[in-house]
Amino acid sequence: MYAIDRHLQNIKITRKGLRILCLCGVLALVASCKKGFLDLVPDNVPTLDHAFSNRLEAEKYLYTCYAFLPQEGHPDKNPAFSGGDEAWTYWPMIEDFFYRDPYHIARGEQRQTEPYMNYWDGYDGKSLWQGIRTCNIFLENIDRIADLQPYEKTRWIAEAKFLKAYFHWYLFRMYGPIPIMDQNLPITTAPAEVKVYRQPVDSVVNYIAGLIDEAAAGDNNTGLPLTITSTATELGRITKVAALAIKARLLVTAASPLFNGNNDFTGLKNNNGQVLFNPQYDAGKWTRARAACKVAIDAAQAAGLKLYYFNPSIITVDNATRIEMNIRNAVCEKWNSELIWGLTTGGDPTFWLQTYACPQLDPNQFNINLKGKLAPPMKMAELFYTKNGVPIEEDKTWDYTNRFHLKTATGKDTGIQEGYQTVALHFDREPRFYADMAFDGSKWFMRNGNYNIQSKLGEYSGKKQSRIYSVTGYFTKKIVNWNLVYSNTSLQVESYPWPVMRLSDLYLLYAEALNESGASAEALPYLNQVRARAGLRSVEQSWSMYSNRAAKYQSVEGLREIIRQERGIEMAFEGSRYWDLRRWKTAPQTLSTAIYGWDILQTTYADYNRRVLLYSPQFIAPRDYFWPIREYNLQINPNLVQNPGW
């Protein structure tokens, strides 16, 4: 269990004593907020005086603020895992889930009466408005701590401000324009003042960015640390680099088509006539995002962060496996050189994610805890490049037309068992394809050995019953730590902090901002660093040599396509695609594309390797860009307006 979570074990929640108006009341229940108050007090001591009486008690309260962070590394608590099109699963599910919410969202069944994954009011025991309220209480009372050193006080204030900004950001990404809760309202507040309004998009963005600026202010020895030095007790806490990187993500999102020059939401107004979306495109937003990305990258460099490369001295591997582990361990190796912010919420932040993703690897062992159910659809297999580093439909040397024809693997074919038959789609692909995904006939490298995936009907990795199988025939290898070990009766999973932000993500955000702000040539070195780690040639070389659109990278529009696909590949299965498709406004086309898999109910090569339609989802725009606000909240507070389409 990680450092923050050890502290959180000591925090108790009560409903006594603290007389502070809760934000769930302000935003959802308004004047009737159940008894009007929600009290969050460490160690069951029902007084605000005690909570801030000394450094130790106040630190517990600070960790209370961290406790509201959503468990983004949990497959059922992050909509980006199973709420979009990166992974599919068997349905209906009777077992093997914590919540069905994201699966309902993926199937187009979101609702406004009781919305799925409703982090506004509370999901998985977390209301982000309560998290904001808790941060405000901390900031309002930190001056009362007599034994707190000045440098600690500055740092704690910065942490609370960042967390408050992050909770606002999380809500903004889900709901669009939201109310801003910079301070808690006193109990004496008049009912009319409690009925808050949503704020315009630009105001929300500026508020969050400003709050992060305050959190990250000062030199490397002031406020937030540049790096965590007390690794035994502080891993997972916010650093300057993490704060600046999240600001970069915020501003890239704000500059993207969903929020910049979008006419789809011109009718979204408060009941006082205030317009919530600015329909005018502003190129300056990309310039601002570009500057924020560069500041974050410079801070990362000063902190010693660098793209992760697998250390071959750990174990002797061939070159293909070394490159594969560059990719896998950039995510799965704990606290590696690339990690900007790793989330440790929940204690074992990726345990369930790995068990959902990992199939049965060993024909002589079966462990019911390995579900293998987080199944990428065929569209994800087609997303990755060929071995030449260009899209499969563009590669002049790759037979796109016959990609579904069977081929037999030889000893020269990477990632496929020799003598095995599978479709041509799986041959001559880039290293990230074999690192990220597994399929019938593929190989799976782990620290304790090499495994072969055989997943036709009745085989050890395939369907044998009504659960514990991949519905598409693909498996999500990338997010399974190579130290996982199991037998018939035991399972050891090395959980790793979930990478909310890693350096390659930041590089790709910067490349996107550079291209969109008139500096396309400057974007290429950052793309090429990411590609080189994955064993690929530069963009210029790959497109010039192999693409039937050789000059594609030389225009803003062409490089935009390349950057978006590069991002889709590099960040696959990390919760990025779900939000990227929305901010790019490509979700209606992409998320309405049919979900295909292989015919997993078959036993022969020819029969198994036939495409099967699993589902035909429909992304309805503009409705599905944002969550609905729960209908009851709108009845209680008439100043809250609903998102379009709901």
What is the radius of gyration computed over CA atoms, rounded to a whole number of angstroms? 25 Å
What is the SS-derived class?
mainly alpha
| Cross-sheet strand order for the largest sheet | 1-10
- Which range does the strand content fall in? 5-15%
- Tally of individual helices: 25
The end-to-end span amounts to 41 Å
Family: Belongs to the SusD family.
Protein name: RagB/SusD family nutrient uptake outer membrane protein
Main location: membrane
Domain RagB/SusD: 344-646
Q: How would you characterize this protein structure?
A:
The chain is mostly helical and 646 residues long. It is 38% helix and 7% strand. The strands form six sheets. Strands 1-10 form a two-stranded antiparallel sheet. The chain has a two-stranded antiparallel ribbon with strand order 2-3. The chain has a two-stranded antiparallel ribbon with strand order 4-7. Helix 12 (240-255) packs parallel to helix 18. The longest helix is centred in the N-terminal third of the chain and has 26 residues, at 150-175.
Label this structure with key terms.
single chain; mainly alpha; disordered N terminus; 12 strands; two-stranded antiparallel ribbon
Write the layout of secondary structure elements.
Layout: H1 3-8, H2 23-29, H3 48-51, H4 55-67, H5 79-82, H6 101-106, H7 128-141, H8 150-175, H9 191-194, H10 201-215, H11 231-234, H12 240-255, H13 284-302, H14 319-332, E1 339-343, H15 351-357, H16 378-383, E2 406-408, E3 421-423, H17 431-436, E4 437-439, E5 443-446, E6 449-452, E7 474-476, E8 485-486, E9 491-492, E10 498-502, H18 503-516, H19 520-533, H20 539-546, H21 556-570, H22 577-583, H23 587-590, E11 595-598, H24 605-608, E12 611-615, H25 631-636
Antiparallel strand pairs: 1-10, 2-3, 4-7, 5-6, 8-9, 11-12
Helix pairs in contact: 4-7, 4-8, 7-8, 8-10, 10-12, 12-13, 12-18, 13-18, 18-19, 18-21, 19-21
